[in-house]
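user: Please supply your own:

assistant:
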Amino acid sequence: MNGDKVRMKKQILFVYLIFGVAVSNFSHDAQAATPELWVNGKRVSQANIQVVAERRNLEEKFERWLDAAVADLERILPLFGVELSPDAPFSIIVGGKVPEPLQALVKKERYPNQASVIRITDREIHVTSPGGRGLGKAVYTFLDRLGVRWYIPGKWGEVLPDGRMELSKGSFVEGPDFLFRSFYWGKSDSYPDMAKDYQRWHLRMRMDNEFGFSGHSYSQYIAPPHKYASDHPEYYSLIGGERIAPPQTYKRYIHQLCVSNKEVQQLAIDFARRRFKQSDLHRFASISPNDGGPFCQCGPCREIGGDVEQTVFLANVVARAVRDEYPDRWVAFYAYSGHLLPPKGMKLEPNVVPYIVNSLHEVGQAEWKYWSAPIRKTGLAKVITAWATSGGRTALRFNWGLNGGGLDMAGFLYPYNWVSHLQDDFRFFLENKGVGVM
C-alpha cells in the first residue's frame, strides 16, 4: 500500500512542479511524524489569526478567494498542533499594507499586484499582497512554505509534511512570472463531477485565468447574427458573391466578419470598451475570429489579405482605438489553424496579444514530438518566436488531452517525460514575451 502511494505521488508530482515555489527558510526534521510549526526556535502551540484586509476595496471575486484561503489556513494550522485562540500571544496577520522596507522588492516583481509578501518576527507572521488579486495567493504561498501540498483536486490530493517545519525570522517576496496561469480540468461522462474540487484546487495552486479573454468573439459578441444579419448582411463575410450570415442563435458559426467594414470595426471597438468597463478583472478583450468559416472575399478585405492578415487587421484597429483610454489592457485573439502563422509585412500594435494554440498539424508536427522534446526543439518554436517579434506580447494555450474524440489528437496519451522539459518550455515562453499560459 505504501508503495502504491509513493508511485501515485510520483505520477502527479508534475502538477506541483508547474506552479510550485522554491522552499527556503525552513528546515525539515523527519524524526517526528506529526507536523509541528516552529518559529525562530520556538514551537507555536497557540496562534490568533487576524484578517485585516480592507474588504471595501476588494472585488467580490477576490474577497471569495481570500475567504477560501483563510478557511484552509484555519483548518490546517490545528493539524500542525496549533490551537487557534483570539488571546494567543502569537499572531498570523493576513492583509494590510506591505511593510515599507519590502515595497522596493515588490516593485521589482514582474506583476507586483499579485506578489506574495511574508514577514516573520518572534511574535507574528504577516502575510499580505499589494493587490486584492494577490491576497489569497499570499496565504497559499505561506501554506506552501509550511510544506502543504495539493497534488490533485479533492481530499486525496492534500498532503502535509512529517515532522518539524521551522520558519526563521525574515522576509520573503514572490510574484508570478505570468500575468495569468491556468490548467483546464476537462470533464468526462465516465468521471464524477469534480467542479467544486477543481475550483478550490485552482485557488490552492495560485492559478489565475480571470482576465476576461472570452474566446471566439466575432459572432458571439461583436456582431451576433440574430441581432444584425437581417438588416446588415454587409457585416458578414462575402463568399462567392453572397453574404454568409444566416440568423443563427447557436454557437457554431460558418462565417466570419467583413473586417474592412467601418461599422463592423466600430462594433468591435465598442465591445472591447464594454468589456474593459465591466470589471477591472478584464485585462484582455477578445477580438478573435469564429471557430471555422471562410474569411471575407470582398475587394477591400482581399486587399487586406488572407485569414491571418484580416485577423490582425481588426485587432490592430481596436487596439489603436482603446490604447489611450485603457493603457494597461490588451486586445487578444486565438492564433491557430489557418491563422496560426503571423502575417508577413504586418506588425502588431504593442497592446495586441496573439493567444497561440499548439496547432500541431499546421506546422507538419506529429503529436509524439511534443511528448519527447522541449517546445524550443519543435516546429511550433518558430511560430512563437515569429509572433514575439511581430510587435505585441504573446500568450500560450497548449492542449494536452483527448480532443474531439480523435485518437490522433494532441495529448491522447500523457507524455511520459513531460516534467523533464516543462520548465524549459516556460523559460522559452518568457523569452518570447509571454504574458500567460494555459
Observations:
- DSSP finds 13 helices and 20 strands in the chain.
- The two ends are 34 Å apart (CA to CA).
- Confidence is low (pLDDT under 50) at residues 1-32, 401-416.
